[in-house]
Amino acid sequence: MPEFDLNEALKKCVNNGATDLHVRTKEFPIFRLHGRLIRDTTYPMFTPESTKEQGMSILTDYHKNILEENGDVDLAYALEGYGRFRVNVYYERDHISIAFRHIPEEIPDIDKLGIPWVSKELSMRPRGLVLVTGPTGSGKSTTLASMIKYINENKDVNIITVEDPIEYKHDNIKAIICQREVGSDTVSFQRALRSALRQDPDVILLGEMRDLETISTSLTAAETGHLVFATLHTQSAASSIDRMIDVFPPAQQAQIRLQLSNVIQGILSQSLLPRTAHAGGGRVVAVECLVATHGVRNMIREAKTHQIATALEAGVKQGMQTLDMALKDLVKREQISMDTAINVCQSPDDFRALLSSSNS
User: Fold this and answer.
1) In the predicted structure, residue 31 carries a pLDDT above the cut 90
2) What's the whole-model pTM score?
């Protein structure tokens, strides 16, 4: 049985089209392929000593200190010819575990991703806030990277990104791009965002809005004439708006609603789903799209986010769609199975009715 070699395992991950590699004590190496976890029994099972050895081999002294202080640490790991990997090293029952997520070297074009055309239009907005939301592993970082690439190819602007860690690397084309990594280039998202406002930015990208201060500063940046991109771990446009507002104390929420209603430009809420074998396998993205029309802004301002689903259904000409509308299109094009759609749709009965009405 061959001895485990981390770089060779990561190459195997990329060559086989897997997205993740997990290294855990008392387990074989585990790859995630098309959403499924697959154990590789050609390698020996990891021991506490071997997982610690693998983890320590990729950490700098700086990262080791963070790991010991916080119990986990994020970093990026590059493998020449195979791209970069987003890495989280963490303690699990006093043992080291590692999760690797592959980040391809080439940033995909928006058209190749399969996300709606309105993403290009949102990328060209001169100011405001654009959110890309979804659960972990739904492709948010890739969507944002593609939108930044589109801006870079079409506008001569100054783009500043704040990421933890940096995943996709951008080269200057028409724009100039400064990419800052939390930990190595700045101590926190909050500090980097405050500093970015003094660096003459036109576009600011935040890897994630994690707390009240980051959200508040993002809203201020969008309000003062910058185009701000950010992510949230929410699963719909309406829940994204509610999450941002609920972070604030009740006494501030009315003011935040007003501020958010003025700056929001659009929300893309996405899910990655297994593609049918008929369509070639792999995964395909389903995206709920919200564009901030006058009516949508009023709903946010008046705390009527429960009405946003209706606005999505009625806003097709503006590029809007519900998740169920996106799922319906994927089922009709045989990209995903009916069972897959039913598992993630808002209401199975309503979804079946929607599909039946489009077929009649």
Assistant:
1) yes
2) 0.87
